[in-house]
Design brief:
By secondary structure, this protein is α+β, with helices and mostly antiparallel strands. It has two domains: 230 residues, FAD/NAD(P)-binding domain (3-Layer(bba) Sandwich); 138 residues, 3-Layer(bba) Sandwich (FAD/NAD(P)-binding domain). The strands form five sheets. An eight-stranded mixed beta sheet has the order 19-15-18-17-16-5-6-21. A five-stranded parallel beta sheet has the order 10-2-1-14-20. A three-stranded antiparallel beta sheet has the order 3-9-4. α1 crosses α2 and α1 packs parallel to α4.
């Protein structure tokens, strides 16, 4: 069995490692060049599901490198008002294998994670290969075609090519992302001694912090390791600590031409909407790296309904793209990679028929993806209503209130 993966991102690379561990031939086709011209400028939180997938799919050396590069940040999320007074602490718990487990998040820069995932795969990644289309062939296999005029025959096609997946557009054209009506401005500031002195210690441990004002907007703050210069090769990149901030509000409350704003104009816009907020939050915005500030209109997949399975399937953002509000996108892609590895391994060992195994994968994936996408969508919507804390992990929410005299609205 030969599996072709379109896309060398987090999910696709993890799947490739898992398949190789099980003796399955795999090739990754990546549209970008081997040395990307721009590094990812932010970090990532790996949750329990992501950690399990990496541990089971990666070779021992890669897993050890991940453990050395990442750091434990616990499972808490904190909520503050605009004057930096702590309102609530959410304990990190998740359902897993029928049990409620304590969330144990790890933080790592996306650059370091990318390097760890690529290690050992370079001989099976074909770079500069832009997927165009596929067709089923007589022997039950699949022929895939590329923009350079080449084509290859494989047995299984996995679209891991992101939110604008070309594989999905051909295979499931009726599944399209929709505009959530929420937008954000994303920025980061290098953690200097001056900035360290201004911010609460809770902001410096890597856990997520949310500023929940009485106005219909939201500010996310967390510390991540990331490359100082995103325009150098990964091997040469200096990695340092950054405070990442994300200002969130309804799209119709922003100027129509916000995507044309300069970084300085974006900073001014955010600060103009935070006039009554704590001065130290203004200082954070002012000290931001002007090369890494950008607006983003949030989009999401709809609720996924069953489709007829075949030797073509999808994982990660290609099938369940979600808002970044819960930080679950990459972790869900890793979860997909482990599950699909297990299903294809059962085919390779003769225990299961191919399409049945893929159907089982898709059925299980849809179940957890629909739940996570729904939570992510509601979190984005709750971020732009008055004075509310979003129902993250609604069924398993554990909030310790710091001021019982205050009441907080929970929207379901």
């Amino acid at each position: 069995m030969h599996v072709g993966i379109i896309g060398a991102g987090v999910g696709g690379a993890c799947l490739a490692h898992g398949l190789r561990k099980n003796g399955i031939k795999v090739t990754i086709y990546e549209r970008n060049p081997a040395l990307s011209s721009e590094l990812p400028g932010y970090g990532i939180h790996i949750n329990t599901f992501g950690k399990q997938a990496l541990q089971e799919c990666l070779p021992d050396a890669n897993w050890l490198a991940f453990k050395e590069a990442s750091r434990y940040i616990g499972g808490q999320s904190r909520f503050y008002n605009e004057r930096m007074r702590l309102l609530a602490v959410q304990g990190g718990i998740s359902p897993m294998a029928g049990k409620i487990i304590s969330e144990q998040r790890l933080s790592i820069s996306r650059t370091e994670l990318k390097e760890i995932l690529n290690k050992g795969l370079l001989n099976i990644i074909q770079w500069n290969k832009t997927f165009v289309r596929y067709e089923h062939i007589e022997n039950g296999g699949i022929k895939i075609f590329f923009a350079d005029g080449s084509h290859e025959n494989i047995d299984v096609l996995v679209g891991a090519d992101g939110s604008n997946s070309k594989v999905r557009k051909q295979y499931l054209p009726f599944i399209e992302r929709f505009d959530v009506g929420v937008s954000m401005v994303i920025g980061r500031a290098r953690l200097s001694p001056t900035l360290t002195a201004l911010l609460p210690q809770n902001f410096l441990d890597g856990a997520p912090n949310s500023i929940v004002p009485k106005s219909p907007d939201w500010l996310f703050i967390s510390m991540w390791r990331a490359p100082v210069n995103i325009h150098v090769e990964a091997a040469l990149a200096e990695i340092d600590n950054f405070i990442v901030w994300v200002y969130v509000a309804a799209t119709d409350s922003f100027p129509d031409n916000i995507t044309d704003f300069s970084a300085e104009a974006l900073c001014d816009l955010v600060q103009s909407r935070m006039i009554s907020w704590d001065p130290n939050l203004h200082a954070l915005i002012k000290q931001s790296d002007m090369e890494n500030i950008s607006p983003l209109h949030l989009r999401s997949m709809p609720h996924l309904l069953p489709w007829k399975s075949s030797a073509v399937t999808l994982l990660g953002d290609a099938i369940h793209n979600m808002t970044p509000m819960t930080g679950a996108g990459a972790n869900t892609a890793l979860r997909d990679a482990l599950l699909l590895t297990q299903k294809l391994a059962s085919v390779a060992s003769g225990q299961e028929e191919l399409v049945k195994a893929i159907s089982d994968y898709e059925q299980q994936m849809r179940a957890y993806a629909n739940e996570i996408v729904g939570i992510s969508l509601r979190s984005a919507q709750n971020a732009v209503v008055h004075f509310s804390i979003p129902p993250l992990k609604q069924r398993h929410l554990s909030i310790r209130r710091k001021n019982t005299s205050q009441g907080y609205q929970h929207r379901h």
